[in-house]
Write a structure and sequence with these properties.
CATH superfamily: Carbon-nitrogen hydrolase
CATH architecture: 4-Layer Sandwich
Shape: globular
Pfam families: CN_hydrolase
CATH class: Alpha Beta
Family: Belongs to the carbon-nitrogen hydrolase superfamily. NIT1/NIT2 family.
Number of helices: 7
Largest sheet: 6 strands, mixed
CATH topology: Nitrilase/N-carbamoyl-D-aminoacid amidohydrolase
Keywords: Hydrolase
InterPro entries: C-N_Hydrolase, C-N_Hydrolase_sf, UPF0012_CS
Structural class: alpha/beta
GO molecular function: hydrolase activity
Strand content: 25-35%
C-alpha cells in the first residue's frame, strides 16, 4: 500500500432496525469479502446497532474482541484487505461503554483501536451513555499512516491537527451523520482534508436509526479538498483510487503547515 495507487472501498451500510444484529454482521461480512480487489475497506460508525439507537447500546454492547471483531477479523482475512470495521459499542472490563473503532490487517489481526473522544448528544444519548476516549490514535497500514476519528470528531479541527502531527496522511472517519445536517458533513470532510493536506475517507450510514434519517453521502476527498467520489443516500459501495505521493507533493508545493503559529497566549477577558 505504501507505493503506487491505493484502492479504497467505503461500505455505506443501510442500518434497518428490522434486521437482527447477528444477521447484519454476517451480511456486512459478505460485503467485505466482495471487496477482495481493494487495499483498504472502511465501514461506518456503530453499524451493528445504529448510531442513534441509544436503547440498544447497553443490551448490544460487546467486549473489544467480541462477536463483531470475530466476524470482521475473518472477513478481512478472507478478502485479504485492511479493514477499518467502523465502530462498535464496546463494554470495557470495568463496565464503561465506549464508541470504539477497530482496524484489522489482511491477516485478520486487530492492529489498532480508537475510542471516540467527542461524544454527540449534548445532554442525551451517546454523550451520557458512553465514556470518552482520551488519546489520539494512528495506525500503520503498509507504510501509510492513517489517523482515526469518528463522526462528531469531524467538528473539532484540533484533533485532526494532532493526527497530522502524529504523521497521518490518510484520515478515516466512520460516521452515523443525520440527513438534516448533510451539508455540514460534506463541508467539514473537505475542510479537514484541506487544512490537513491529507486524504479524508468519510464513511456514513444509510437508513433510519431510532427515527433519525441518516445522510449517507460517504465521500473520499483528496489533499486539495477535491471530492474524488461521493455516494448517494442509500446503501452503496463507494470505491476510489488514492495516490499516496499526492500528500507529500501537496505539502511541498503549498507548504502551509510549516506556517502554523502555536502557543499564542489566551487574551485576558477580565478587561
Amino acid at each position: 500500500m505504501g507505493g503506487g495507487s491505493v484502492r479504497v472501498s467505503l461500505l455505506q451500510i443501510d442500518v434497518d432496525p428490522g434486521e437482527a444484529v447477528d444477521a447484519r454482521r454476517e451480511r456486512v461480512a459478505s460485503l467485505v469479502r466482495g471487496q477482495a480487489g481493494s487495499d483498504l475497506v472502511v465501514l461506518p460508525e456503530l453499524w451493528p446497532v445504529g448510531a442513534f439507537a441509544a436503547d440498544l447500546f447497553q443490551p448490544e454492547a460487546e467486549p473489544l474482541r467480541g462477536p463483531t471483531a470475530e466476524v470482521m477479523s475473518a472477513a478481512a482475512l478472507d478478502a485479504g484487505v485492511w479493514l477499518h470495521a467502523g465502530s462498535i459499542v464496546e463494554r470495557a472490563p470495568d463496565g464503561a461503554l465506549y464508541n470504539t473503532s477497530l482496524l484489522f490487517s489482511p491477516d485478520g489481526e486487530l492492529r489498532a483501536t480508537y475510542r471516540k473522544i467527542h461524544r454527540f448528544g449534548f445532554d442525551r444519548g451517546e454523550a451520557v451513555l458512553m465514556s470518552a476516549g482520551d488519546r489520539i490514535v494512528t495506525g500503520d497500514v503498509q507504510g501509510v499512516t492513517v489517523g482515526l476519528a469518528t463522526c462528531y470528531d469531524l467538528r473539532f479541527p484540533e484533533q485532526f491537527r494532532l493526527l497530522v502531527d502524529a504523521g497521518a496522511t490518510v484520515l478515516l472517519v466512520p460516521a452515523g451523520w443525520p440527513a438534516r445536517r448533510r451539508e455540514h458533513w460534506t463541508l467539514l470532510a473537505r475542510a479537514r482534508a484541506i487544512e490537513s493536506q491529507a486524504y479524508v475517507l468519510a464513511c456514513g450510514t444509510a437508513g433510519t436509526h431510532a427515527g433519525v434519517e441518516l445522510a449517507g453521502h460517504s465521500v473520499v476527498v483528496d489533499p486539495w479538498g477535491a471530492v474524488l467520489a461521493e455516494a448517494g443516500p442509500g446503501e452503496e459501495v463507494l470505491t476510489a483510487d488514492l495516490d499516496p505521493g499526492l500528500v507529500a507533493k501537496t505539502r511541498a508545493d503549498f507548504p502551509v503547515l510549516r506556517d502554523r503559529v502555536l502557543g499564542l497566549p489566551v487574551p485576558d477577558s477580565t478587561g
